[in-house]
Amino acid sequence: MSILIDSDTTFIVQGITGREAVNLTRECLDYGTGAKVVGGVTPGRLGRDVHGVPVFDTVAQAVAHHRAPIDGSVVTVPPAFTKDAVFEAIENGVKLIVIVTERIPRRDVAEMVELATLRGARIIGPNCLGIIVPDVIKMGGIGGPAKNAAQAYTPGPIGVISRSGGMTTEMSSTLSAAGLGQSTAVSIGGDAIIGSSYAELMPLFEADEQTQGIVIYTEPGGRMEAELARWVTEKDSRLPIVAFMAGRFMDEMPGMSFGHAGTIVEGKEDTASEKIARLAQAGITVAERIEDIPEMIRAKIAERSAA
Amino acid sequence: MRFFEYEAREVVKRAGIPVTDYGFTTDAAEAREIAQRIDGPTVIKSQVLSGGRMKAGGVKFADTPEEAESHAREILQLEIAGHMPRGVLVDPKAEVEQEYYAGVVWDGIRKQPVMIFSPVGGIDIEQVAEEQPEKVGRRHFSNILPLSDFEAKEVIAATGVTGSALNKLVPIVKRLAQLFVENDMVLAEINPLGRLADGSFVALDAHMDIENEARGRHKKLLADLGVGDEETRQAREATPFELAGEEVDSQDHRGVAGNVTEFDGNLGLVIGAGGGSLTLFDAVRAHGGKPANYCEIGGNPSVSKTCGLAKLVLQKPGVEQIAVMMSIVSNTRVDIVARGVIKACLELGHDPGEKIAIFRIPGAWEEEGFKILEKYGVDYADRSVSLNEAARRAVEKIGGASA
Asked: Which of A44, B231, B345, B401 is most enclosed, with most CB atoms within 10 A?
């Protein structure tokens, strides 16, 4: 199986008439068994279509047209309008929201996440590329055009969680080349506050029979890795984890932001070296090089199944 | 973006929190006038963004206006941690009975702001939390429910503060929480918050940091404070090379080719995307390479933008070769980046095959890209060569150390 989405998942694209959103819609329709993109929303564009997907002014119109609840939404509207778009999706019963938009102030993100939590919805992102279940479905720009995504991602036992969209594909491609496919790969976003952290996705992978091990990509900044280390220790997770830490050079440059908005060393706890130590303490192997990851996770899976 | 103390105090004042009758100036003679107006002992404080002002001699006490002027003159000339002061603050020396702490920050795990309060102020709150944890109150508050007095009351009462002090502190802590939210702060701190002999409270110093992404919706506040759009107040000032990088990136809105940070090595980097750049920069250094710069490409930038970035890096003094490397691209096109970097070499009169140590960008439009690279004799690699291996080859070529 997979986590978050499968071949039956229906979703809409909010901001569907934007240039990137048009491409993203094409990619999702083409990939795997073909995503069920049941509508798009751009205010004032009711009646148009994007690659055959009907466009509506409101999420409510899309739901009415679909005659059933819609599972998800990919939000690609500009930062100033994102909060409203996400509120609209949540209040219309959408339960899984992938926010692609970058540069959203964290107050807005925090408001969206709190409303989502109240309504039993989940947010992935912002500043992310979405979710992919290899050969089945992708929700978001992850992996790019169907042809390219098919080259990097293959089905298999590894769950991938990454703060970098591009590195989700780089690591999955490395795993695929070594014969290790992915159950689901999730680009969780590079901001300081995001809808779903490593620790918040772990229970889903834990419950997914297909998943036998987890590979994560991580960076300096924030306390999400400490949260993961705590979760792994407390829950005695069945899943072995291998982590890759980028941005080690940043430890020498406190206060400077690199790569992603959330990637900044502000205190002792969010340096690369501190995080590596914390992850290692929780039994999470931290790889020095990406090419070492497949053998590391393979060995850890073998170790667990032998025990 | 950090605010200077004199700006942060203005933000505090506007929120209705009592402050002392201070004055800000860049001129020693004016410091004397402010001290005269205050008509009592004063504190002269250097206005710099770095910490450790007191130790560095950036805070001095004056009994007379003449003394205030001479201290101001000294402090205005005093560099602290590499920064010259923006000016000085002339503050009445308050008769403080007790120093408290009040602050608000984000908790990225709970995804809510958290109020922090302590009756032990004037020192670093982290130190208080370590030494006297029972003296630090913390309370998260909702992002969508209205903020209520009782929330401030709880966090203060949790530290053992009661009586009239509690009742006087509630509106101050609540207003601080409100200003944090309304102004999109990532840090809002009053430390110390002084209790005076008459039992009233006054903010004696404040630290504020506004989120860069939200600056656009606080234009009025920033204009009132005199903060220019161009002021980024990074941990260190941008170099001319970095500013030129910003210029390249802003030439059109398509994609990113910028976010340049200067280093002093000989290997120029044209790398991407966000996570890929971090990974590659680490890899170059791990192999003993000396990067001349950090940068990012992503989101499918145009040929001219990529060319602009490559030219900038190629022209940086000391750069011998460039390495063009990215994690697998799906949105950015390999052929466009290839065209951009080759064009940069040619326009500067270089042979792309010699100047480009390695080109490792697999992904969208790679066949087209590799064809162009082959034509110009550029050494390229596909996805079977790892980011780490590509970095190693680049370092080896430039004659740096290599493992």
From this structure: B345
Give me the architecture of the B240-397 domain, per CATH.
Answer: 3-Layer(aba) Sandwich (3.40)
Is residue B5 within 8 Å of B85, Cβ to Cβ? Answer: no
pLDDT in tens, chain A (307 residues): 899 999 999 999 999 999 999 999 999 999 999 999 999 999 999 999 999 999 999 999 999 999 999 999 999 999 999 999 999 999 999 999 999 999 999 999 999 999 999 999 999 999 999 999 999 999 999 999 999 999 999 999 999 999 999 999 999 999 999 999 999 999 999 999 999 999 999 999 999 999 999 999 999 999 999 999 999 999 999 999 999 999 999 998 888 888 887 887 777 778 999 999 999 999 999 999 999 999 999 999 999 888 7
pTM: 0.95
Assigned superfamily of B21-93: ATP-grasp fold, A domain (3.30.1490.20)
Number of Cβ within 10 Å of residue A114's Cβ equals: 17
> How far apart, in whole angstroms, are the C-alpha atoms of residue A206 and residue B285?
37
Chain segment B215-245, per-residue pLDDT in tens: 999 999 999 999 988 787 876 778 999 999 9
Q: Cβ(B37)–Cβ(B68) under 8 Å? A: no
Q: Which residue of A has its CA nearest to B386?
A: A291
Going along chain A from its start, the domains and CATH numbers come out as: 10-306 (3.40.50.261)
Which residue in chain A is spatially nearest to B217 when comparing CA positions? Answer: A80
Give the per-residue SS3 of A56-117.
ECCHHHHHHHHCCCCCEEEECCCHHHHHHHHHHHHHCCCCEEEECCCCCCHHHHHHHHHHHH
Q: Do the interacting molecules here have an ipTM over 0.90?
A: yes
- DSSP 3-state assignment of B274? helix
Give the residue from B1, B211, B218, B278 with the most A CB atoms within 10 Å of its CB, the best one to mutate.
Answer: B278
Which residue is listed with tokens 């809808």?
A195
Q: Is A106's CB within 8 Å of B296's CB?
A: no
CA distance B348 to A254: 36
> Is residue B329 within 8 Å of B362, Cβ to Cβ?
yes
Contact map slice: A 166-225 vs B, CB within 8 A? 166-167, 169-170, 173-174, 177, 190, 192-193, 197, 217, 219, 222-224
| Residue A97 Cα, gap to closest chain B Cα (Å) | 17
- Catalytic residues of A, by residue number, are 260
Identity of the residue numbered B160: G
Asked whether the beta carbons of A86 and A77 are under 8 A apart, the reply is no
Superfamily of domain B1-20+95-235: ATP-grasp fold, B domain (3.30.470.20)
- The rounded distance, in Å, linking the Cα atoms of B212 and B185 is 9
Q: Is the Cβ of A141 closer than 8 Å to some Cβ of chain B?
A: yes
Q: Is B183 helix (H, G, I), strand (E, B) or coil?
A: coil
In whole angstroms, what is the distance from residue A50 CA to residue A16 CA? 7
Whole-number Å distance between alpha carbons of A285 and B264? 33
Q: Are B168 and B193 in contact (CB under 8 A)?
A: no
Length of chain A: 307
